[in-house]
Amino acid sequence: MRFIIGFFQQGLAMARPALMLELFPAEARYLTELSALGWWTTASLLITPIVYFLKELSWRYLYLIFTLISTYSIFGYWIYDESVRWLLANGRTNEAKRILRKAAKMNKIDEKGILDVVEEILATGLNTKNYDSNASEEETKRLPEEPIHSSYQRDNIPPKYTLFTLFKRRRIAIITTIMITVWTVDSLVYYGLILSSASLPVDRYLSFFLLTVAEYPVVLFEYSLMNRIGRKRFCILFHTIAAVSLIAGTVANYFSDLRGANEALMLFFFLGKLGITGSFSCLFLYTPEIYPTNLRTIGIGLSSAAGRVGGMLAPFAGPLAEQVRWAPGAIFGCLCLLIILILPQLPETKGHELPTLVEDLEEWYKVHNRTEKQKEKDNNYESG
Predict the structure, then answer these.
(1) Contact of 126 with 357, CB cutoff 8 Å
(2) What's the CATH superfamily of 2-51+163-358?
(3) Which of 99, 149, 281, 356 is buried deepest, with most CB atoms within 10 A?
(4) How do residues 185-219 score in pLDDT, each as one tens digit?
């Protein structure tokens, strides 16, 4: 039963980021992960008092409470609509229009104007590069920024992507390899800190509570920084916070006999949890933003599956801490430093329209990896 729970929970967890991203424009996409993190942290925080008051009872009562809390999801079948972007990318135009009419009616907007924009997009194959260069600025803003591959524009037949598509082409294989590595490390560190919280020099309920509270400031940081500095820099920044804090916590743990060492250890673990929460939360936004529409759930699904490997290794952090107190923090900190070195290879997604096809992603990655000298040369060529 636990296997079935884990199977379906992960399916839900991976579909949710992709669906939410495709509902919002570029400037508001970060709000989806911000709200998700807020609710995740609140739910995690509520676990502490529930478990504390049920500590004398069987674990079955705890499962019963969690089950009753989640029954609201049954009604989602009648509430949620399919992603319009996904429907259009797969040629299911009538279904997309039906949802747009429903949205227009709910928001008291003229549906004809919205459907006219859809017709323009379909008529141009979602390719703004071939759109009339004399079009007004207002008309240009109504169209997507990203091009669609010519075969789609000519035949209007969406390409079929599979898991193997992630490794068939060099650039997308590099992105996938980096994402797999980052998800594995973040999952290992995040759950490792949770499961090793019992080894901290305070009551285990209090330590879990404090490490969960550390996630709330991340919501404020995401709100103020994610759209300002970008996803990649945000992720690098919080991996840096995690790495420095965990290595410092390892040093404090080594000198635990000194006065004030335990307080310093709690502070560094708090900051380490804050750092890894910020970077892990960013991945739920950053990963689906990078992949094209028909590869979005496959890309984040594979990355998350790799992250489960880190999650499976995380329970060993507690027993390791009992044998070598400083080892988990040192390992976690060094792994975060590794991620800081490889993240710069990824393109920035802030303010960038979601890619539709693999060709869009490859062109985007190609432009991203040009050196400043090459970019300056290209600009001089265009202006000259």
Answers:
(1) no
(2) MFS general substrate transporter like domains (1.20.1250.20)
(3) 281
(4) 999 999 988 877 666 667 778 888 888 888 899 99
